[in-house]
Each structure stands twice: as C-alpha cells, then as structure tokens.
Amino acid sequence: MSWLRKYFPRTYFAQRNLARARVRTLLAVLVVTAGVVAVGGLGIFGSSFEASQQQNLGDVANEVTVTAPSEKPTRAPLENPVPLDERRLKSINSIAGDSMVTVLRTRPATGRLGDSEVRSVTGVQNFNATYTVVAGELPTNWQNGVVISSKDASFLQLQVGSPVRVNGRLYRVVAVAGDIPGDVMLPMRLVEPGNETRYSKLVIHADDAVEASRIAGDLDTELNDGLDRKEEFQIDTREADAEAIQQQFTSTSQFLLGIGSISLVIAGVSITNVQLMSARERRREIGVLRAIGFSQLDILAIMLIETVIMGTIASLAGIVGSLGAGAIINTVLLGDPTAFQPDTTRSLVIAFVVGVLITLVAGIYPAWVASRERPVDALRDQ
C-alpha cells in the first residue's frame, strides 16, 4: 500500500481517477491553462505597454517651465511686465541646483524658410537638454546656423545644408529637431543681440517628479512673491499630466485583466461539464465506495480534490506560458525579453490564484451531485 493511499486516501483516489481518464483530464487542464495564460499574459502586456509608453514620454513629469509675464497669453499686453532677466535667471539657477536648464528667447522675425515665411525666431542656450536632434549634428560650440523642426523639414522638403534667411541674414540648416518653439532656432547671441539680458522662457529638468514639485514651489515664492496675479511668472509642471496618464494606464491594465478573467470563467464552465460527465460515468464506482463505507463527505472531497489538482497543474502550466508570452511581448515593446516589470509578479499570482479558485468553484456542483447518490441506486446503474 502506497503512503499516499495510507495517509491521504481521498487524494489517492482523486489522482487515480484523473490518471484513468487521461484524455479528458488533459483537455480540461488545457482549457484552464489557456485562461491562466490569458490573465497572466494580458497583465504582463499591460505592464510592459505602460513601461514602453513611459519611455516614449521621457521625463515629462520632471520638467518645470517658467514663462515671463510678457510671454503669457493675455487679452491685453502688460504695460510694464516684470522681465525674466539675468538677475532672476541667477536666482532660478540657484534654486534648480544641479538640474539642467534650457533658456529661450522668442522674438518676431522676417525671412524665408523654403516656400514659407519666417515669422518668429527662438534663441536657445543648452539646446541638448530639452530638444532631440533627428537629422544633422549640432556643433558642441554652436555659433551659427539654424535648427528647424522635422515637420517643416518634411513639409517644405528641407534638409541639412538648406539655406534659410532670417532678418536679412542667410544661414544654413545645421540640424533638424523633433519639435521646437518658433519657426527656427538660433544660438542665443544671434537673437535680438541688443537685448541679451531678457528672456522669454526656460525649461528645468529635475531628477524626478518630487524634485520638480519642490523646484516649482520655491520658484513661485522667489519670483511671484508680492506680484499681482496678472503680473506673475507662469510656472508649470507636468506632474498632473503624468498622473492622468498613469491613471489611464492603470485602468487599461485592469480592463485587460478583466478580459482575461472572462476566459477563465469559460474554462470553469468547461470544468463543470467535465466533472458532471465524470460523475455520471463513475456512478457505479461511487456506489461501491459508498457501500464499503465512504461517506458523502468523502465523495465530495475526492471530487473537489480532483478539480484542485487539475487547477493547480493548469495554473502552473499557465504561469510558464505567461512568462513565455511575456518574453515575446517585452521583446516587441521594450526590445529586451527579460525586461519584466515589478507588476509581473502580481499579475502571475493573480492568474494562479484565480485559476485554482475557478476550477474549485466549478467542481462544487458536480461533487455535490456525486456525493448525493444513494448507494442502492448507483449500484443498479448499468
């Protein structure tokens, strides 16, 4: 007599019954496995998709922008706006600390950009901290030449080396950037050279969202203390936008998990059907067990243990399948098959637990039906 039969007779009979009906057991396990893979795989997909989008968004939540009062959109221009000058720029740099700062000066301009008119030009300091070059190369010591947007380059069929006329002077395109303020960008010293001490806007790149919030608060106190609301510097962070995007990602992940759970419910219905068929086919055997002393509770437990065994095997197989699917998803979205996110463990645990619980719940009714069989009626069955 095996130790399993001696110490755990219910489990022994349950695993024996499953082994005797291998094909039916295998089909039931495959159905549940598919459901677990759906839950786990979709959970991993949601986490990886969120990570890929956060990479695309970059450090949006870490940015702080300061706009001079004269550059804010208002119904009427201010008479004597407070300038964003060198003195205030030094205060801003002191508050920003080690954070990188891009300084901008946008002014009206005239000229030609291919077949289009140039209406504004932006001078910039520390271009590379905020903008990304997609074509050409910006010299380390950028002294001449313009940067244009990729949209203008495509629409106007311009490229690196194309001539651009700004305020009567001829320049060459040295680089193309993704998105820029104004029609063209020049080194700061070439934009309104007689007014070098007044700027339009600056962008601060903090280490994280918490530091960005701290910098924004300190800047508001430093720059706007004592000013009327319409005269204040406009200080913006993208933290609210980042939080809204994060909430959207969370809702999407929960929605995907819900879709995967539907497949597990369908698997549960399949388990119920399989166990009902099993109870009907084993009616005479159940009658014999009842006749030799097995109680209704014993029959109920044997049937439920069968479903738990199937659910556990299927869920473990589903976890392996989910990891395989996750590796493919990570390769497509993140370029690294091993780039699993911290939420992956939670998704896999949820998939495993739900898989086992669904099979257990699905087996309750068939087990109850089998346990209610009267021995005399079951033994008469041919």
TrEMBL record:
It is a multi-pass membrane protein. It is found in: Cell membrane. GO terms for cellular component: plasma membrane. The keyword Oxidoreductase does not apply. GO terms for molecular function: transmembrane transporter activity. Residues 259-373 form the ABC3 transporter permease C-terminal domain. The chain crosses the membrane at residues 21-45, 255-276, 297-329, 349-370. Residues 25-219 form the MacB-like periplasmic core domain. InterPro entries: ABC3_permease_C (IPR003838), MacB_PCD (IPR025857), Macrolide_Exporter_MacB (IPR050250). Keywords: Cell membrane, Membrane, Transmembrane, Transmembrane helix. Belongs to the ABC-4 integral membrane protein family. This is ABC transporter permease. It comes from Halorubrum ezzemoulense (Halorubrum chaoviator).
